[in-house]
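Section 5.1 Outputs to date
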Amino acid sequence: MDEYYHDDDIADLLGISVAGLRNKVDAGDALPPHTKLPRIRARLWPKKETHDWIRQFLIKQAAEAGRLTGNRRGRPPKQQRGQR
């Protein structure tokens, strides 16, 4: 049998309030897939699909490390201004 999260679990997982989660659902914002059963007010969020949805936003460490070691934008620090 599948396991599900409730609204308060998803709100905690995303770092927002339950009211904020409800606003995002009503606004049609990008959120994990959820199920709303007939005549039941609560939404159910499948755990596997929720974690798959979050996983798609993970930043790849190798790509991030390469980006951070390249030339930085903006004015160089005082120590580097005299070296150029």
